[in-house]
C-alpha cells in the first residue's frame, strides 16, 4: 500500500486574539508583547466602587490628571512582558554574579584603600532606602495607574528597584560587613546630608496621581540620581581613587538605568504629544520634582566631591534637561 503525503496550507481563521485585534485596529499578526498587553486592562464587571475610594472605580483613568483617548498607546519600546523581562534580568544576574565572584576570589575589596572603601559605604548604604522607595512608588503606579502597557512595566520596574537595593546590600556585606547596613540606615535617618533626599522620598509616597508619581520617581529622581551617583561618583571618582571593585559591584545600576530610561522617555513623550494640557502638566511636574531632586542630591555629591560637586551636578542637570526637552517637555 502506498501512502501519498501532500503538504497543505491551512489558513488561520484569525491572526491574533479578538481583544488584541480590537486594540490594534484590525486582525493583524501581533507580537507576544502586544498579545500580553493590548486590551488586557480589566474594564467591566465591577459592580461596586471600592469603599476606600468611592469617587473612583477600581481601575479608573480619572485617578490621573493626564487624559488619553487610548491608554494602550503608552507602549514599552523594550517590548517587555514577563518572559522577556525575566530572561533579560537573568542574563544580567549571571553577569553580576561573575563580578561578585571575581572581586571576592581575588580579594579586591581588601586591596582597596580604607578611605575609598569608607567613602563608598558612606555613599551607597543609605541608597538602599532610596531604591526601596522606588520599589514602593512603582508598585503604587502599577496599582493605581490605568492600562496594562503602562502598569505592567511599572511592576517590572518596582522589582528592578528591589534588585538594586539587594545588590547594594551585597556591596555593604562585601566591603564592610553587616554593621555597614546599620550605619547606612542610621545615616539615612539622621545624617544632615541625607535628610533632603529622605524628605523627597517620603513626600513621593503621598503623591496620589500615578502619572505625577511616575514623573517624580522615574523621570526626576532616578533621572538625576543614577547618572550622578553611579556615573560621576562611582565610575568616575571612586574608580580613579582605587575603587574599581565598587564600579564592578554596582555595574547593574547604570546599565539598568540606560535601558529603563527608554521606557520612561517613551511614556512621557507619548503622553505629552497627546494634548497641550498633558504637555503642560508633565512639564510642571518635571520642573517641580526635578528642582527638588537636584537640591536633595547636592549634599550627597558634596559629601564625596567637596567643592567640585556643583560642577558635576550642573553637568548632570543639563543632560537631564536635554533629555526632558527631547521628550517634548519644557523644563
TrEMBL record:
| Pfam families associated with the record | Phenol_Hydrox
List GO molecular-function terms, semicolon-separated.
oxidoreductase activity, acting on paired donors, with incorporation or reduction of molecular oxygen, NAD(P)H as one donor, and incorporation of one atom of oxygen
Query: What top-level branch of life does the organism fall under?
Result: Bacteria
| Segments crossing the lipid bilayer | none
Keywords, alphabetical: Monooxygenase, Oxidoreductase
Asked whether the UniProt record includes Cell wall biogenesis/degradation among its keywords, one would answer no
Which InterPro entries does the record associate with it? Ferritin-like_SF, MP_mOase_hydro, Phenol_Hydrox, RNR-like
Q: Give the protein's recorded name.
A: Phenol hydroxylase
Species classification: Bacteria, Pseudomonadati, Pseudomonadota, Betaproteobacteria, Burkholderiales
